[in-house]
Specification:
With 420 residues, the chain is α/β, with parallel strands linked by helices. It has 14 helices and 16 strands. It is globular and about 60 Å long. It has helices spanning 18-26, 45-54, 70-84, 99-111, 128-134, 163-169, 192-204, 244-247, 262-273, 281-295, 304-325, 359-371, 387-390, 402-416; strands at 32-33, 94-97, 117-122, 138-143, 145-146, 154-155, 159-160, 174-180, 208-212, 238-243, 256-259, 331-332, 338-342, 373-374, 376-377, 393-397. Strand 3, helix 5 (128-134) and strand 4 (138-143) form a beta-alpha-beta unit. Bound molecules: pyridoxal-5'-phosphate. The site of pyridoxal-5'-phosphate has 13 residues, from helix 4. Pyridoxal-5'-phosphate (PLP) binds at residues 37, 99-101, 125, 180, 184, 212, 214, 243, 245, 251, 256. It catalyses: 3-hydroxy-L-kynurenine + glyoxylate = xanthurenate + glycine + H2O; an S-substituted L-cysteine + H2O = a thiol + pyruvate + NH4(+); L-kynurenine + 2-oxoglutarate = kynurenate + L-glutamate + H2O; L-kynurenine + glyoxylate = kynurenate + glycine + H2O.
């Protein structure tokens, strides 16, 4: 084989991907898919209607402004000004990208250099580590650790960062920390005090914060999503990432956005103008119109930012009851639409599975094949050293129709029945 066929060094060792592997397995129509974060509920009707309207307008089928379609950045600035309590310049402080993936890519390529260190909490959304490595930087990991919860429900809020351990990860090479709140896969919603610890360290060590807040609207009773960029001294060093896919349950639209000060956003714009250049115009226009509908009724229970978490909280509670009914102890999420549980208690016979994989990879493959139920192994959200700590956990997605959850319930309940 020609040496010229060899991969670029920057992608060495990054060829395996959990979504590619497990989405393929779950594609069998007989499988009930609680794997990838893919809503099978209908997106709001007005979101779909706006998209069907724009295709009829000739000019909206052509390229638009590269850094974000003007009506969309205007709608986003209007939406977020309420939360940042400051004006947000639609052209200089917002960048619209290809999903939150695109935002993460632009931020990491635009701001992180060879030799830099980037702090990542374990478990983490799986693309953080390869993106940091592709930029030539070194990821520095810190685990979320759980306190003991004997006898009581296990909550995502039991998982915390140790402030001293966190400080030990910062040094003069630290360029950024990647924060994810609400958290995927644990569902943790960082509190004001926890965010203050991170903000203080970012300021003390003159570090940037890349804040992935794609599940920002999806927080459950008793919790509040807070933006670290609004903490004193943090706006100037934070880029905050959002996603249309998560906001309106339209993951296939693949539109995301980054908000931050122009002195950071301009570097992300440089990456964008030399890579994807611009995002799909009809989707951006439809998203802008849909956002206006909800911006005008933010305090109304009908507003999707209020109604979706209410709808999901019922599904979350149903999943908790279901998993508990078969003897599992799920970690009850305070936000997001995933729930994780230690499945080793189900005592599945994995002896036929290939032995060179973490327990959760074998378990999910076995469950998909034998029980026709799919999920995602949590060790996919870990670096290689920390996989053993999480390999007994799998992640179930609950942004699903009741009929899908009924089917999952039937499978899980039948499984746990003693064989007659
Ligand atoms: C934490 C987190 N960040 C980023 C993304 C990517 O979002 P998008 O589909 O908008 O690219 C996801 C998708 O699941 C996610 O869970």
């Amino acid at each position: 084989m020609s040496l010229k066929f060899i991969n670029a060094k920057r992608i060495e060792g990054l060829d395996r991907n959990v979504w590619i592997e497990f989405t393929k397995l779950a594609a069998d129509p007989s499988v009930v898919n609680l794997g990838q974060g893919l809503p099978d509920i209908s997106p709001p009707s007005y979101v779909k209607e706006e998209l069907s309207k724009v295709a009829l307008i000739n000019s909206l089928n052509q390229y638009t402004r590269g850094f974000g379609h003007p009506p969309l950045v205007k709608a986003l600035s209007c939406l977020y000004e309420k939360f940042y309590q400051k004006e947000i310049n639609p052209n200089k402080e917002i960048l619209v990208t290809v999903g939150a993936y695109g935002s993460l890519f632009n931020a990491i390529q635009g701001l992180i250099d060879e030799g830099d260190e980037v702090i990542i909490t374990i478990p983490f959304y799986d693309c953080y580590e390869p993106m940091v490595r592709m930029a030539g930087a070194t990821p520095v990991f810190i685990p979320l650790r759980s306190k003991p919860v004997d006898g009581k429900k296990w909550s995502s809020s039991d998982w915390t960062l140790d402030p001293q351990e966190l400080e030990s990860k910062f040094n003069s090479k630290t360029k950024a920390i990647i924060l994810n709140t609400p958290h995927n896969p644990i569902g943790k919603v960082y509190t004001k005090e926890e965010l203050q610890v991170i903000a203080d360290l970012c300021i003390k060590y003159d570090t940037l914060c890349i804040s992935d807040e794609v599940y920002e609207w999806l927080v459950y009773t008793g919790n509040k999503h807070l933006k670290i960029a609004t903490f004193p001294g943090m706006w100037e060093r934070t880029v905050t990432i959002g996603s249309a896919g998560k906001t309106f349950s339209v993951t296939g639209w693949k539109l995301g956005w980054t908000i931050g000060p122009n002195h950071l956003i301009k570097h992300l714009q440089t990456v964008q103008q030399n890579t994807v250049y611009t995002c799909a115009t009809p989707l951006q226009e439809a998203l802008a119109q849909a956002l206006w509908i909800d911006i005008k009724r933010m305090d109304d229970p009908e507003c999707y930012f209020n109604s979706l978490p209410k709808e999901l909280e019922v599904k979350r509670d149903r999943m908790v009851r279901l998993l508990e009914s078969v003897g599992l102890k799920p970690i009850v999420p305070d936000g997001g639409y995933f729930i994780i549980a230690d499945v080793s208690l189900l005592d599945a016979d994995l002896s036929d599975m290939k032995n060179d994989e973490p327990y959760d990879y074998k378990f999910v493959k076995w469950m998909t094949k034998n029980k026709k139920l799919s999920a995602i192994p949590v060790s996919a959200f870990c670096n290689s050293e920390s996989k053993p700590q999480f390999e007994k956990f799998v992640r179930f997605c609950f942004i699903k129709k009741d009929s899908t959850l009924d089917a999952a319930e039937e499978i899980i309940k039948a499984w746990s029945k003693p064989k007659s």
